[in-house]
Fold:
Amino acid sequence: MSLGSIALKIRQKYQHGLGTAYYRDTVRQRILQTKPIANTTDRTCEIHVLTYEKDWLNLIWALKTFYHYSDRRYALCIHDDGTLTEDNRATLHYHFPDARIIDRPSADRFVLETLQAHPRCLEFRKTNHLSPKVFDFAAYLETDRMLLLDSDVLFFAEPAALLQRIEDPDYKLNTVNGDVASAYTVDPTIVREKCGVELIDRFNSGLGLIHKDSLNLDWIEEFLGLPDIIGYFWRIEQTLYALFSCRYGAELLPPEYDVHLEGGIGDSPSRHYVGKIRHLMYSEGIQRLVKNGFLSALNR
Structure:
């Protein structure tokens, strides 16, 4: 390796400071020394997550903070994007022994068969790396309600409003955290004209309650025919969730769940550490959890 390459690696490692590198590279590993989360069998709701080789450790933090601070044991389904190693899967199975872990080859065989009558859906599932978050979650969902949870979300207190909406049998809307700004691949005006759907602003698919009945393949097939919907890679899946949720009925979670790039955690029950602030997941989020005794509490 050249001196230039070594210098680049050092700059990348410490670009957000020594503290961030310490919590990311050293402290973050300590979650692996905590006890498993067992008995995740509550069928009130099922958590669905998509993970990959460079992401599964953050996922363990996201899941364990949710289970700890919510004091719930919702069923769990972990979807492998195809890059997890055997050791990765074994580690996830150890920490969540009652979870279903769906490997990519099995998912491809099963899900592609379910999409045969929906050619746009089928093509999208074959070509978009994030499409399993739509189609695989729907195909493997075993409860009427699903909790969407990205691996870059940490919890710091009971998410009372989210839990209330999940567990209220009369609550019939999809509800998610609000984004910094609307990030869709389609023009809301065209959506209104062609589909009769009024998109709400700032829909973010990183955290929220989704009803099984809203995951309608006929609707998704229709929406995939909208002009320019196959746009920015990272926004297509979120756009589809926004479209079918708004047709079904949707609203945002309260402001304390909003994605925000400035300021700290404050009194919010969670924070979504999206790409621009991912480094804060370590220097702010994990640091606060550790200092508040979270790791010790997991081992009691």
Notes: The first strand starts at residue 42 and ends at 51. The chain has one domain: 3-298.
